[in-house]
Structure formats: C-alpha cells, structure tokens
C-alpha cells in the first residue's frame, strides 16, 4: 500500500512516521504528480487558511478532487478535516469569499470549537471499532457540527462529533499522529482499498 501525506504545511512528518511504522510506503505530496499511484492521502493538522492558500498556489485542488473521484481515500486531521468539509464556520474576516478547501465531505466544521491554543488538551476517547479508549490530542481543534446522511459518526466529545467517516473519506478533530497509538491510522488504511 502507498499513502501520500500532503506536505505543504503542518504536522506531516509525524503522520509519515506513524504510517511507516505500520509498514506503509509513504510519499510526501507537494505537487500534483506526487499523487500518482497512491491508494490514500493524509491531510495533516496545521493551519487551514495557510494550507488552503498553498493548495491553490500549487494547483493541487483539482488533482486531489480527481484523486478522490478515481477511487483514492482521504483522511483529514484537524486542519485537514477543515480542508475536507463542504461547510466551514468561523473563517477569518480578512479572507474574501470562502476559505479555500476541497469541499469533498458532507460535514460542517467549526474552526477552533474547543478554544484557543492554550486550551489544547489530551482526552481518552471511545471510538467506534476500537476495543479500548484512544488518547487524543486536541490543538485548537475544530468540531464537526453537522454531518450529512451518508456520514458515520465514529466518536463524539463534549457534544461535538470529533471523528467521522463517509465511504473513503475520514475526518478527525484531533491529532492521531501525536500519540504512539496507531489504531486510528489503521482504521483509515482499511478504507484505502481501491474499488
Ligand atoms: N491543530 C490544528 O490543525 C488546528 C487547526 C486550526 N485551528 C485551523 O483552523 O486551521
């Protein structure tokens, strides 16, 4: 299996290390041609307005959407979840129009729903499909405030959805790459088998 990690900005190295630990071949994606031959793509946490701007500057939006249409799977964590969402709440006022995102997953995401950087926290979560709790790190995390009818809720915390899946798309509010526990990445790898 070959997985790409979008490496424009943010915590892409940690995802790379986690996936390599699981025996996966990993490619850092910075240009459209880096998507060739991948089964899945991870969009890391970071800062979604910066990542969105870089995605547009590097002409990656259409190729990533095409990658998904062609059967690729995508996992967005934290800022990456914002990048996947069809609707974003709380975008900064200085951005005119809609903050750039991929608009692939039928979810509404509220930016910074769990407070500011100083309010970052670690929390044991009960995640559907895992037989014990998962210690999740939240850093200026978004909350998933609405899910479409084809979206499965895999975990909720403080009344908000924090892990969701829709076919080959997965979105997490937290940072599963910042722990030693690889089980959330394993859940994603199960969705990466091309039809
Ligand atoms: N850790 C993160 O990825 C934070 C996301 C950030 N708050 C944003 O809106 O882009």
From TrEMBL:
NCBIfam families assigned to the protein according to its UniProt record, in alphabetical order: PLP_synth_Pdx2 (TIGR03800)
Protein name: Pyridoxal 5'-phosphate synthase subunit PdxT
Complex and partners: In the presence of PdxS, forms a dodecamer of heterodimers. Only shows activity in the heterodimer.
Superkingdom to which the source organism belongs: Bacteria
Organism annotation: Deinococcus roseus
Gene3D superfamilies in alphabetical order: 3.40.50.880
CDD domains: GATase1_PB
Catalytic activity: L-glutamine + H2O = L-glutamate + NH4(+); aldehydo-D-ribose 5-phosphate + D-glyceraldehyde 3-phosphate + L-glutamine = pyridoxal 5'-phosphate + L-glutamate + phosphate + 3 H2O + H(+)
Keyword Lyase: yes
Pathway this chain belongs to: Cofactor biosynthesis; pyridoxal 5'-phosphate biosynthesis
E.C. number(s) listed in UniProt: 4.3.3.6, 3.5.1.2
Role description: Catalyzes the hydrolysis of glutamine to glutamate and ammonia as part of the biosynthesis of pyridoxal 5'-phosphate. The resulting ammonia molecule is channeled to the active site of PdxS.
Pfam family, one: SNO
PROSITE patterns: GATASE_TYPE_1 (PS51273), PDXT_SNO_1 (PS01236), PDXT_SNO_2 (PS51130)
């Amino acid at each position: 299996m070959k997985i790409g990690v979008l490496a424009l900005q943010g915590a892409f190295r940690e995802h790379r290390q986690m996936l390599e630990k699981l025996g996966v071949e990993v490619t850092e994606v910075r240009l459209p041609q880096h998507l060739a031959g991948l089964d899945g793509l991870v969009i890391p946490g970071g800062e979604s307005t910066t990542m969105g701007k870089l995605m547009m500057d590097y002409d990656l939006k259409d190729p990533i959407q095409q990658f998904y249409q062609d059967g690729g799977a995508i996992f967005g964590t934290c800022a990456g979840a914002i990048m996947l969402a069809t609707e974003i709440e709380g975008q900064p006022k200085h951005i005119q129009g809609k903050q750039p995102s991929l608009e692939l997953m039928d979810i509404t995401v509220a930016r910074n729903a769990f407070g500011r950087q100083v309010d970052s926290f670690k929390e044991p979560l009960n995640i559907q499909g895992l037989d014990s709790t998962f210690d999740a790190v939240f850093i200026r995390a978004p909350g998933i405030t609405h899910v479409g009818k084809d979206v499965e809720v895999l975990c909720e915390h403080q009344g908000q959805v924090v892990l969701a899946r829709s076919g080959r798309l997965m979105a997490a509010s937290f940072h599963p790459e910042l722990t030693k526990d690889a089980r959330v990445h394993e859940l994603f790898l199960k969705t990466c088998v091309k039809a």
